[in-house]
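Dear support,

Our group has been running a series of protein-ligand predictions, and this particular one with flavin mononucleotide is the one our PI (initials K.S.) wants archived with full inputs and outputs. We had some confusion internally about which version of the output was final, so please treat the block below as the authoritative record. The input we submitted was:
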Amino acid sequence: MAEEMHFYEPAQGHGLPHDPFNAIVGPRPIGWIATRSSAGVLNLAPYSFFNAFNYTPPLIGFSSIGRKDTLRNIEENGEFVWNLATRPLADAMNASCAPAPPDVDEFALAGLTPLASRIVAVPRLAESPVSFECRRTQIIELQGLNGEGVGSWLVLGEVVGVHIARHLLRDGVYDTAAAAPILRGGGPADYFEIGPESLFRMRRPSYP
Ligand SMILES: Cc1cc2nc3c(=O)[nH]c(=O)nc-3n(C[C@H](O)[C@H](O)[C@H](O)COP(=O)(O)O)c2cc1C
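Confirmed final output from the archive:
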């Protein structure tokens, strides 16, 4: 017999102590996004509604829930840098999510070092072992079923430059676990760290 299921329609509420949505769609990779305002102020913030969407060209995107400084900066100058959030950088990543006013340099706020990028004017994060220099391709306001905007914006960009710390390349192959990336779980505080023990391998089946 099938197990009894908890069912809910999100529009009517979940009927649980905590909304499980983020805990189910998780852990999610974190887009730790650096931007620069038109006034030249550096901005850094984590976005876990983040992922990669295409190989060639490489496209990544994140969702801004509401209009935030990162979104505004990318609207204004079309550039951003994605940085890998790792276990040693977890506290700094968290510090960078403070809702600081637009004139506050969030690299300085989080005790982090901006390093000049190669292609875009936005700096990368010196402490992070991997960074993607990106140029905006699309900004799309998300819509609900009724076709109305929900006040969240999907920001997509093409990766035009990739920086990888050499120690993460083993015989030229990128070692995901060696970077100890952190991912966002559900609830107010859950994160996951990826280590070598999380790895298993499975090849795609051939057909027939
Ligand atoms: C791990 C983590 C993930 C987050 N993910 C998102 C997200 O996907 N979308 C969003 O709008 N805010 C997200 N936030 C909150 C933003 O980081 C926060 O609102 C920040 O102040 C935005 O900065 P900005 O205004 O400089 O862009 C997240 C925060 C943390 C700590």
